[in-house]
Specification:
By secondary structure, the protein is of the alpha/beta class. The chain is about 30% helix and about 20% strand.
């Protein structure tokens, strides 16, 4: 029987219960909800599946050691106690990411340097050599989390954040994060049982995430690689079996529509949909929401209008007033979900929401509101069973009290940003960090201290005769695995909720058996998208 161990799935604040539900459905044991994380237990197979299949996880961590530390010296000593030969050797590279919420430890880069020094010093004492640092593409990535004096040092099994699915070819201004988009859809309860509409679709993130959820396709299908693929105990056959298993995918007999008034956004969204191979399920057109008309079939709207803080929009309040008018007169009998930031924007909608769920979009404390559109008077709608809140609905709304109680979350976000910008030379290093009598083989050169006769070593700037110093571009070759990439379809259907001038789709494709995405096992190069998404 495969050994089980502790794992941690990171996510955004407000999405923890959704992630916990995903993990439970995946077969995880001892699932515990924390702050922006969910801890659980599982084996190597579950760790691989969590990275590959979870829609609402940012990264999956495998803790190595939990300990308490009152100072930087404590961190150094505790890290040095770990037998690092189990995870590294002198021919491999590593990197350390730190997240710090503590009065004692105020700078995440300082903590990262202490961890790196402890590991390097252990190898130097044992072998006279040390593993090198690679920021861009390390063989082993470590994660240090400090909350006050509680420290957790983990192996990062994901590497690049899991929100970087790999299908995004281009972006628009202030794109919605893929993990947040998937969380919104899962919160709404939509699983592909009706049509799906985003009338302000931007680069199409909600549309693509909806298609993946409707077909129960793994969001990891488009990823180039995961950090665990470089671990010494990586089981390639096990991961290939997980990657190529499509037994849980399902048919989707409805359709997904996206619209935007900006033709550039429309073209960007179409490009991203094609990259994901989902043009059979998604139709995108240029259209203004003010021209929206009642859809012929049952549908749900989930959308993320501009807030003002995210996108400069003329007549912002007028836009929200128009949204309310369209929903009231042209979306009866359906549900609409809107994510926004400003209370005055919601006020302009002029409709009473049946559910208000707090969510963070970046550092903005937003609300995700549900509007149930109905004919007649509200009293009649209530008597027929409308606006009935389930226990899950009440729990989601109660999250707002937790957000208000923990306002320091925003403060900690800004502290984290300051941590990233902090100058490490502002700290006084201890002797064991910069000893001159320690062997210094090639590759272990350190920054000079401010007290050095030559002054601190600095990176070359752009005006240097030699040009700016750049990081090496590590060879990021893939292993022998072919792409399990969805084919590109072209199967328009009818039922367009906009006037005929905006185009439409022909009826007759509904109910047709889903043609499984193409899987070319002979092609050994899975990296079909070489363009990395921007932060």
């Amino acid at each position: 029987m495969e050994q089980t161990f502790e794992l941690i799935a990171k996510t955004f604040m407000g999405l923890e219960p959704v992630l916990a539900k995903e993990l439970t459905q995946l077969g995880a044991n001892d699932v515990q909800i924390g702050r922006r994380m969910v801890s659980f237990k599982g084996d190597k197979k579950l760790m691989y599946r969590a990275n590959f299949q979870l829609h609402t996880a940012i990264r999956i961590l495998k803790p190595i050691r939990h300990f308490k530390a009152q100072s930087a010296d404590d961190v150094y000593e505790q890290v040095k106690k770990i037998d690092w030969t189990q995870y590294l050797d002198t021919d491999k590279t590593f990197a350390v990411d730190s997240v710090v919420f503590s009065e004692e430890f105020r700078h995440s880069k300082f903590v990262s340097y202490k961890v790196k020094d402890a590991i390097a010093d252990q190898f130097r004492e044992l072998t006279g050599k040390r593993p090198n640092i690679s920021v861009a593409n390390p063989d082993v990535r470590l994660n240090m989390h400090i909350a006050e004096d509680k420290c957790t040092l983990s192996l990062d099994s994901s590497g690049e954040s899991l929100h970087r699915r790999g299908y995004r070819q281009e972006s628009v201004e202030a794109p919605l994060n893929e993990v947040l988009a998937a969380g919104m859809i899962l919160m709404s309860g939509w699983k592909g049982d009706t049509d799906f509409i985003d009338p302000m679709c931007g680069s199409g993130t909600l549309l693509i995430e909806a298609a993946l959820i409707a077909r129960n396709m793994a969001p990891g299908l488009f990823r180039k690689e995961y950090a665990f693929e470089k671990w010494p105990d990586f089981d390639r056959q096990l991961f290939d079996d997980i990657y190529n298993d499509d037994s849980e995918e399902r048919e989707f007999n409805h359709h997904i529509y996206g619209y935007d008034i900006d033709i550039k956004a429309v073209n960007t969204a179409r490009m991203n949909v094609r990259a994901a191979g989902l043009t059979k399920d998604i139709t995108i057109e240029e259209a203004d929401f003010k021209d929206f008309q009642q859809p012929r079939d049952k549908a749900i709207i989930i959308t993320n209008p501009p807030y003002g803080e995210r996108i400069s929009t003329p007549d912002l309040l007028g836009t929200y007033k128009m949204i309310g008018e369209r929903l009231k007169h042209q979306f009866t009998g359906n549900d609409a979900w809107i994510l926004s930031y400003r209370e005055e924007c919601f006020d302009q909608i002029g409709l009473k929401p049946s559910l208000k769920i707090p969510l963070f979009n970046g550092s903005l404390e937003c609300e995700f509101r549900k509007y149930q559109m109905f004919d007649g008077k509200m009293s009649s709608f209530r008597s027929d069973g409308g606006f009935v809140k389930t226990e899950e609905d009440k729990r989601q709304m109660a999250e707002k009290h937790r957000f208000k109680k923990e306002r320091e979350f925003k403060k900690r976000l800004s502290e984290q940003e300051e941590n990233e910008e902090a100058d490490i030379r502002s700290f006084k290093f201890h002797r064991h960090e910069l000893t001159n009598d320690t062997p210094n083989p090639k590759g272990s050169r350190r920054l000079r201290d401010d007290d050095s006769p030559k002054g601190p070593r600095r990176l070359r700037d752009n005006n240097s005769p030699k040009g700016p110093r750049r990081l090496r571009d590590d060879d990021n070759s893939r292993g022998p695995r072919g792409p399990r990439r969805p084919k590109d379809y072209d199967n328009p259907r009818s039922g367009h909720p906009f006037p005929p001038s905006f185009g439409g789709r022909q009826k007759g494709a509904g109910g047709k058996k889903f043609n499984k995405p193409g899987r070319d096992f002979g092609n050994k190069n899975r990296r079909f998208n070489d363009d990395e998404e921007e932060d």
